[in-house]
Amino acid sequence: MTAMTIERVRAFNGLDVLVARDEGLFAAEGLDLRIAPAVGDAPSTADGTLTQPVSVQGSLMDRGEAAMFQG
Amino acid sequence: MVVCAGLVVRPGSDIFTPQELANRMVALDYGNGTAYAGLQMLEGAMPREAITTCAATVNSGDRLDAVLRGEVEATVLQEPWITIAEKKGCRVVSTTFFHGTWVADPSVSAETYAAFVRGVTRAVRRINADKRRYVSYFIADFPGHPDVEKLTPDDFDLGRIQLKEPGPIPEAEARWAWEWMASWGVLEGAFDPRAQINAAMEREAHARAAVGLSA
Fold first, then answer.
1. Over the stretch B104-163, which tens digit does the pLDDT of each residue have?
2. Which of B58, B59, B135, B142 to mutate to test binding with chain A, by most A CBs within 10 Å of its CB?
3. Res A57: pLDDT
4. Which residue of B has its CA nearest to A64?
5. Which of A33, B86, B158, B215 has the fewest CB neighbours in a 10 Å radius?
6. Residues B46/B22, Cβ–Cβ less than 8 Å
């Protein structure tokens, strides 16, 4: 079984991933898929600007704590 | 996954079309796909100089509250917040759909990504066969939130829940998205497909996935 951690998804952008995890579809493929919890110290997007946005997308991957994220 | 984004105004608003949001404040969670979907909905309805937006929290419930309090004219929501907004009497003046795109670091092998694609593909097939069965996931995402907990699966418009089996990113779409974002100053430089897409790994992963799915 290969383990892989991805950044958090919600149903609106990852219903397929959540169902695959819960119904054992990744496990059947030999994949132990783990979904990281929300970033606790996340900055607010309200502090960003259009050209300098503040987003946590990819932050766990940057820290080596997740191997994939959905952009 | 195909994400649905809805441009929402408060109950009783004098705004019925996206065009009427010209020079009116729209709250967007910059940096997230929903915000860019919002910009695209506005851009299709007015000159760029008439688009008026402000930075807002990524928390969709809080953005909806800001609309209801009249602090902004509109915002862009995803499910389950579009459904909640409608139940509160809000008007959806535009909807659009966009693909989520997976970004992988170099440690992810073609074999591992293929396993991921196979799992997701099988899930997409199950969900599409009975969407109503799975909409409870949208409710489960927000435990303890009173507006969300009032929802039942029958409240959801299944047309807003769209899933597509995963596939490689068409280079033309990636290029268009890059150049569109660069035109807004969000990205800099020219699109370089070799820097943005590991095409060999992508091809191998999807080829492996296809073999597994046909077995």
1. 999 999 999 999 999 999 999 999 999 999 999 999 999 999 999 999 999 999 999 999
2. B58
3. 86
4. B105
5. B215
6. yes
Tell if the CB–CB gap between A70 and B103 is shorter than 8 Å. yes
> Residue B108 and residue A67: Cβ atoms within 8 Å?
yes
- Picking from B31, B100, B115, the nearest residue to A54 by CB comes out as B31
Asked whether residue A21 carries a pLDDT value surpassing 90, the answer given is: yes
Alpha carbon distances (Å) from B110 to B106, B203, B207: 10, 9, 9
Chain A residues with CB under 8 Å of a chain B CB are: 2, 4, 10-21, 23, 25-26, 28-31, 33, 44-51, 53-55, 57-58, 61, 67-71
Residue A41 pLDDT exceeds 90: no
Contact B55 A11 (CB under 8 A): no
**On the CB side of B137, how many CA atoms lie within 13 Å of its CA?**
22
Q: Alpha-carbon distance B93 to B198, whole Å? A: 38
Average pLDDT over residues B4-26: 98
Which residue ranges form the domains of chain B, and what is each CATH number?
Answer: 2-99 (3.40.190.10), 110-161+169-214 (no CATH)
In chain A, where the domains are located: 2-62
Distance from CA of B148 to the nearest CA of A (A): 13
Q: In chain B, what residues touch A15 (CB-CB under 8 Å)? A: 1, 123, 127, 134, 137-138, 161, 163
Supply the DSSP symbol for B134.
H
What is the ipTM for the molecules in this complex? 0.95
**Is the distance from CB of A15 to CB of A8 less than 8 angstroms?**
no
